[in-house]
Design goal:
This protein has eight helices and no strands. The longest helix has 25 residues. It has about 170 residues and is an all-alpha fold. α2 runs parallel beside α4 and α4 runs parallel beside α7. The radius of gyration is 17 Å and the shape is elongated.
C-alpha cells in the first residue's frame, strides 16, 4: 500500500498543479496542502529517521521563506511559492537543489514557448477558450507551476522515496 501511495500521490498532485496552473494561472492551496499531508502520512512508513525528516522539514520551510520573499517582490505567484516549498518538503536536501535547477531549465523553455505563442495570432476558434486567451495575453505572467511540476517529476525518481520502494 505504501508503494502505491508514493507512486501515485506525488505524481498525481504534480500533474494536477501543472494543469490547473496552465488552465487558471493559479495553483490551489489544497494541492500544496495535499503534498504536505502526504509527506506527514507517508514519511513514517518510508524508513526516514527523525533527523532526515527534520532536514526535509527544514528544507521545505527554508524554501518557503525564499519563495515568499520572491512573492513579496512580485517575482513569482503565491501559489508557486507554496507549491515549490511543498515539493522541497518531499525532496529534502540536496534533491531540492536539483529540482530548482531543473525547474529553472523547464521554466526557461516554457517562457520562450509562451513568448513565441504570444507573437502568433490566435485563430478565431481559440477565442472561445478562456485559458488560451489568458495564456496569450502579454499582460499575464507564465504559469510557472508547469515548470515546477516538470522539474519535480524529473527529479522524483532520484529521491529517497523511490529508493525505499526499489
Amino acid at each position: 500500500m505504501y508503494e502505491i501511495a508514493v507512486l501515485t500521490l506525488f505524481p498525481l498532485l504534480a500533474v494536477l498543479a501543472a494543469v490547473t496552473d496552465l488552465a487558471r494561472m493559479t495553483i490551489p492551496n489544497w494541492l500544496s496542502m495535499g503534498l504536505i499531508a502526504g509527506f506527514a502520512i507517508l514519511a513514517p512508513f518510508s524508513g526516514m529517521d527523525m533527523t532526515l525528516a527534520g532536514w526535509h522539514i527544514a528544507t521545505g520551510l527554508g524554501l518557503l521563506v525564499v519563495t515568499f520573499s520572491l512573492f513579496s517582490m512580485g517575482w513569482i505567484g503565491g501559489g508557486d511559492a507554496k507549491y515549490a516549498a511543498a515539493i522541497a518538503l518531499w525532496f529534502g536536501w540536496p534533491a531540492t537543489l536539483e529540482f530548482l535547477l531543473i525547474s529553472a531549465l523547464f521554466g526557461g523553455a516554457l517562457t520562450i514557448a509562451i513568448v513565441a505563442f504570444r507573437k502568433m495570432p490566435l485563430p478565431q476558434l481559440a477565442y472561445n477558450q478562456e485559458w488560451i486567451t489568458r495564456l496569450h495575453d502579454p499582460k499575464n505572467g507564465a504559469p510557472y507551476g508547469v515548470a515546477l511540476s516538470c522539474g519535480a517529476l524529473y527529479v522524483f525518481p532520484n529521491t529517497v522515496w523511490m529508493s525505499t520502494i526499489l
